[in-house]
Every structure is written in C-alpha cells, then in structure tokens.
Amino acid sequence: MPLSFRIAPSPTVFRYSTVSATAAAVGFGSVKQHCRIPNPGVATRSGFCSGGVVLDSGKRRGSYVATCSLETVNVSVGQVTEADKDTFWPIVKAAGDKIVVLDMYTQWCGPCKVMAPKYKELSEKYQDMVFLKLDCNEDNKPLAKELGIKSVPTFKILKDNKVVKEVVGAKYEDLLAAIEAARSG
C-alpha cells in the first residue's frame, strides 16, 4: 500500500495517510498534471499534482512527494534527496514514522566528499528510512543554525520530527552505529 500525503501551501500544515493503489492512481481531484522535478546530484522523480495537492504516483513502493510554498520535492526511499531550508521540515513531517537521516555538508568540504558515496550506499541499504542532504550554504544558513550545526559533515537522525542522534565528522562507523541504534530504539 503506497504512502500518500498532502502538504498545504504553508509548510507547517500537512496531512498524510495510507491509500490503496487504486485511490493513488485515480487521484483526489478532477485536474491531474504530471510533475517532474530535477534535483542536482540526485535522481529526478515524478508524481502527480491534482488541484494544488501533490499525490503519490502509486508506481513505486516507498516513493512519495512533498510540496511546500512554491516548490515540489520528490522523495524516494533508497536514494538521497537534496533538501533546502524550504523543503526540509515538510519532508521530515511528511515522512511520518520513518526515520530521517540528514547529511549536512558544504561543497568545499573534503571529508564531506569522502562520505558522500558511503552515505549513498547507506540509503540503498536502509530502504525503510529517508536520506536527505543539506548544503550548508548561505541560502540554507537559517536552517543549519536552527539544527545547531557547528562543523561539517554533521549527520542528524530524526525520529518523529525530533533529532535523536548526531554524528559530527566523517565517522562512518559512528554513523552506522547511530542508524542501528535509532532503528532498534
């Protein structure tokens, strides 16, 4: 059964619900439009927009779509999704009871570049989690500050919209242990 959710124009208001594949395929409105959103460095995903509401395409298990303000971001488990200050919290909230793992990095950070392929492998291994990346550039500085980042890379693990674990530095084994602890706890 696919996971489908709706996020209203305000990024703080959202609903999610499980729906049957038939309901997801039919949609919830009479106007249906196909949406394709490219994300640099990660795979492009597709979904359906209906009456201003974005729905799960119903074509891929574990795939879902988030919308906030003026932007739509497609998220699939098993892949890393680039988030920003406008899409991060709506994605986290829409993930529901799924664990969210966040990689906070910068373009110029050497250790971040070393961890990137390992992080991608983790996203492929842990299909029951959502893996996000946040470039801690000037645009995303308010969110980075809100999340308390002091150095990069920093990995945050969120459960029920709250940070439950943190790993600072390019410490793969520590990140793996934190993910396992979050899954079992």
* Helix/sheet category: alpha+beta
The unreliable regions are 1-61, 67-71
Strand content: 35-45%
CATH architecture of one domain: 3-Layer(aba) Sandwich
Helix proportion range: 25-40%
Question: CATH topology of one domain, which one?
Answer: Glutaredoxin
Organism: Noccaea caerulescens (Alpine penny-cress)
InterPro entries: Thioredoxin-like_sf, Thioredoxin_CS, Thioredoxin_domain
Pfam families: Thioredoxin (PF00085)
Keywords: Disulfide bond
Strand and helix layout:
Blueprint: E1 3-7, E2 14-18, H1 21-26, E3 32-39, E4 42-50, E5 53-55, E6 63-68, E7 71-76, E8 80-83, H2 88-94, E9 99-105, H3 110-125, E10 129-135, H4 141-146, E11 154-159, E12 162-168, H5 172-184
Parallel strand pairs: 8-10, 9-10
Antiparallel strand pairs: 1-2, 3-4, 4-5, 6-7, 9-11, 11-12
Pfam families: Thioredoxin (PF00085)
Keywords: Disulfide bond
Organism: Noccaea caerulescens
